[in-house]
Write a structure and sequence with these properties.
Length: 101
């Protein structure tokens, strides 16, 4: 048997688990987590997706993560540190208003 016949015997390659793990790795590491933690989560997601444990849910979460990270990556949203500071100030204002009333 030749290489190509062996390859046809295997069947189509399932690329979804690998692509989903790469999305998780890129999104989590871009949001500030260390590379090793993001890699561990990506491996977990790869294995779970490969063996169909919550495959649809993990793929949907990966799409949402990609949609959330894309504006930050393109520079369309403020940096994460500024966004966190704004969220803290809004939270402080809301707490102060709730305590005043």
């Amino acid at each position: 048997m030749s290489f190509w016949e062996d390859l046809e015997e295997i069947g189509p390659i399932d690329i979804k688990p690998l692509m989903n793990a790469m999305v998780y790795l890129a999104a989590i590491s871009y949001l500030g987590t260390s590379f090793w933690k993001a890699a561990c989560i990506a491996v977990y997601v790869f294995i779970a997706t490969k063996y169909y444990y919550g495959r649809r849910t993990l793929i949907r979460i990966g799409i949402v993560m990609a949609l959330v990270v894309t504006p930050f990556w393109l520079g369309l949203a403020p940096p994460l540190n500024d966004l966190a500071a704004m969220a803290r100030s809004v939270g402080t204002i809301l707490v102060a208003r709730a305590q005043a009333s």
